[in-house]
Every structure is written in C-alpha cells, then in structure tokens.
Amino acid sequence: MIDCHVHLWDPAEGFPWIKPGDPHHRAFGEDDLERSGAGLGLTGAVLVEASRGDTGETRVLRELSLRRPDLVVGYVANLHVHAPAGPAALRDLLREPGRPNGMRLGGAEWDGTPEQARTLVPLLAETGTVLELNLYRGAFTAAAEAADRHPGLTVVVDHLGNAPDPRAPEAGEWYRDVERAAAHPNVVVKISGLLTQQHGVPPERVAHLVRYAVDAFGPDRCLVGSDWPICLPRGGRADALAAPRPGLAHLTDDQLRRVLHTTAVRVYGLTG
Question: Tens digits of per-residue pLDDT, 172-195?
C-alpha cells in the first residue's frame, strides 16, 4: 500500500498556521514518519507540502525523496510559493532530477487562490505534472473545470473534496459535484483526511461517502492517504488508513489493490 498523503514539518522553520499550544506544534520528521508506518505493510508514502510558506520546503521534500526512496516514493510541492518566480523557473523545477510529482493549490475556494498560481496550471499540463486541489468549497467543481480546460492535465482532489456531513443540507451539492467531476477521465479523488474532516459522523455514513466516490470514479481514479500527522488528535496513522476500508469492502481484491497501490503509481508517475 502507498500512503498518498503525509506531511512533515518543524514549526521553528515556518508553518505559520501551526500556533503554539496547538497539538501539532512540534516537529515531525523522517524518523517519526518511519515509526508511524511500522507494521502497516506500506511500500512508501507521498509527501504533501504543509504550507511552510517558502520554496525551501520543496527542497526539503525533494532531498528526502531522493535520499529515502524506501520511505518516500514521491512528493507534492506548493504551487503558491513557486508562482512569483514565473513560468520559466517552474519549468526548470519540473525538469530537474527529483522533480515534484505534483503541485498543490489550496484555499477556501478556486477564486480565492492566487491568480499568479492559477496562471501556471497550463504548464503543469504541458509537463505532465499533477495539479492537486485542497479547497474547502467547490473542489470537485474546480477540478472538473480545470480538467475540461486542460484535457492533458491530471487533477487530484484531496480529502474527498472536503465532503460535508452527509446529513447536512449541502450534502446534495457534494453528490452532484462528484458526478460532474467523475465524468472527466483526468480527475482523480483522494480518500484522505477522514478522521479530521468527518469527525463525529457515524462510521456507516463515512463508509457511504467513500463508496459513493469510489463507485463514481472507479478504482483506477481513487487514492488513499492518512493525512498523518494532521490526523493525530483523532487517531494514529493506522486508524487513518483503516477509516476508508468499510467503504471499500465491496471491491474485489484486484480493485482494492488498484485503489491502494497501482493507481498511485500511475497518477504520480512513481517507480514502484
């Protein structure tokens, strides 16, 4: 299994969103990542930027992926921080050895992300680099629109598109957005963040959300990630990786293998 969503950080080096007193206000490094995966049958992890706020985070992720390919099989960098340098600098980054496997764009919604970063999306399509979306609202709609504009672009939607509680009035909109995005073959959904995003939701309802997304997208366009160490106040990495399993129980062994491993290799261009 490949864990497609983990983070590393040290608040002393940036990460302004991690405040003193927050349970995440401590360093999580390479050794912590390795210990957290012991006994879980993992073949690697995809590191995802954690909004340090500068391009130095990309260098840290790159160095670790090159030095520890047994632990880190790929990484996703922050598109925001590379945007000011312009397209030529980003093209150089995406050509170098150990290049990012994806670039993430995040915010409350698509229009709230930096315009300078959005203008670089065509370059991601040109270079075969995944666009990863972490939007609080409208992630599937934004993914569908980006996929439609750039047919050669692969768009990964994090955290089930930040699905609402399925009992909430806005849940109907999420279901419609899933179907719209699934109609685009270059949109992929990442089943991650369940312990945090779905905290307090009955397990059977979480399973329903997972199954709905998997049935809409199919196993060749679904990934699974723990969102470690964000998940820690609600459970460990093993708990986070187990959370999607009830919603995957209807899959055949081959389909499950694709969701847990094969799809990640293809989508991110991994080597193993």
Answer: 888 999 999 999 999 999 999 999
Decide: 246 and 205 in contact? Cβ < 8 Å.
no
| Closest to 56 (Cα-Cα) out of 94, 13, 16 | 13
Token pair in block for residue 123:
């370059």
Instruction: HSE, CB side, 13 Å, CA atoms: give it for residue 135.
Output: 22
Six token digits for residue 156: 């990964």
Question: What is the CB neighbour count within 10 angstroms for residue 13?
Answer: 13
Give the pair of three-digit tokens for residue 110. 């698509």
| Lookup result for tokens 């694709």 | 258
- Secondary structure of residue 85 in the 3-state scheme: helix
Q: Are 228 and 6 a contacting pair, CB within 8 Å?
A: yes
For the purposes of burial, counting CB atoms within 10 Å of the CB of 155, is it exposed (0-12), middle (13-18) or buried (19 or more)? Answer: buried
Q: What's the predicted TM-score (pTM) here?
A: 0.96
Task: Please say whether the beta carbons of 62 and 75 come within 8 A.
Answer: yes
CA dihedral 251, 255, 258, 260 (to 10 degrees): 20
Cα end-to-end span (Å), the chain: 11
